[in-house]
From TrEMBL:
Coiled coil: none annotated. It comes from the Bacteria. Residues 3-291 form the RmlD-like substrate binding domain. Catalyzes the reduction of dTDP-6-deoxy-L-lyxo-4-hexulose to yield dTDP-L-rhamnose. One of its GO terms (molecular function) is dTDP-4-dehydrorhamnose reductase activity. This is dTDP-4-dehydrorhamnose reductase. Its cofactor is Mg(2+). It catalyses: dTDP-beta-L-rhamnose + NADP(+) = dTDP-4-dehydro-beta-L-rhamnose + NADPH + H(+). Signal peptide: none annotated. Belongs to the dTDP-4-dehydrorhamnose reductase family. The keyword Repeat does not apply. It comes from Pseudomonas turukhanskensis.
Length: 294
């Protein structure tokens, strides 16, 4: 790798997976420790003025964007300003920006898979914040790669998967929507995609724009929960044996979570040669990592 790579958010689950996978290909990252209050516009300005990397991979707010159960508008506001400033700095210093986004920028009203060209009409605060962040990145930094991921699954105790497994151990029953669909995406697979994109950028390929990636085989949240439960039983005795079916409209997060969140991944395949991997194949190692650290 000839480019100097900076990773913001190297301490979170996706950042760690990216560092781990990069090391296997002798790809190293400059991963600065964030200031006590987290990265903001001022600290990012100082950082990039001093370091001048070739590429920035911005995972600084990964947990809030992809794993937190809920996030306040007051928390998103400074993150939006920080990313806007980051994009401006990248443009000023001729730095390429790799920025993650999410299926949440869509409202879920489309029963077929969303392509990159579909209109974005986000539902909740998180989707609306990510939509505004996408717009600011496009406006300020033309040399960017935005990747919208499907349902990201990591091994953190406080994340989406961790909350589900904790409830499965301690609660008598669990329900998930049988009419909500998406692309489960284990964190190691997401890291693989980012590494593949960085390798192409290292070849000076001007492949700027927005891309979708999600694990192979779209499924319902109910089927995903049942698959996770089956794997988890090999590690721990659970209070819940089966996940019950519930309508999307009856779920507590119906106002924020798109009912249909399947992403079409043809563009990233045709542009970068990245083939979707089966999400089921990634569950055993994901559950093993979760229970080793639980």
């Amino acid at each position: 790798m000839q480019m100097r790579l900076m990773l913001l958010g190297g301490g979170n689950a996706l950042g760690q997976a990216l560092i781990r996978l990069g090391a296997e290909d002798d790809i190293g990252f400059l991963a600065p420790r964030p200031p006590e209050g987290g990265w903001d516009a001022t600290s990012l300005t100082l950082l990039l003025d001093e370091t001048r990397p070739d590429v920035v991979v911005n995972l600084a707010y990964y947990f809030d964007w992809f794993q937190a159960e809920s996030v306040s508008a007051e928390r998103f506001a400074p993150q939006e300003r920080a990313v806007e400033r980051l994009a401006e700095l990248c443009q000023h210093h001729s730095i390429r920006l790799v920025q993650p986004s999410s299926y949440r920028v869509f409202d879920g009203s489309r029963a077929t898979a969303y392509s990159e060209k579909e209109e974005q009409v986000p539902l909740g605060l998180r989707g609306q914040a990510l939509w505004r962040i996408e717009q600011s990145v496009r406006a300020a930094c033309p040399r960017h790669v935005l990747i919208r991921f499907g349902w990201l699954l990591d091994a953190s105790a406080e994340g989406l998967l961790g909350r589900f497994l904790n409830r499965a151990e301690h609660e008598a029953e669990l329900f998930l929507a049988d009419d909500r669909r998406g692309n489960p995406t284990p964190i190691d697979d997401a890291a693989r995609v980012l590494i593949a994109v960085l390798k192409q950028l290292d070849c000076q390929a001007p492949l700027w724009g927005t891309y979708h990636y999600g694990g192979y085989e779209a499924t319902t949240s109910l089927a995903l929960g049942q698959a996770v439960l089956t794997e988890a039983k090999a590690f721990r005795q659970l209070a819940v044996q089966e996940v019950g079916a519930q309508a999307h409209a009856a779920r507590p997060d119906v106002a924020d979570e798109p009912q249909h969140a399947v992403l079409a991944c043809k563009k990233i395949l045709h542009t970068f040669g990245i083939k979707p991997r089966a999400w089921r194949a990634g569950l055993p190692s994901l559950l093993d990592r979760y229970y080793r650290h639980a």
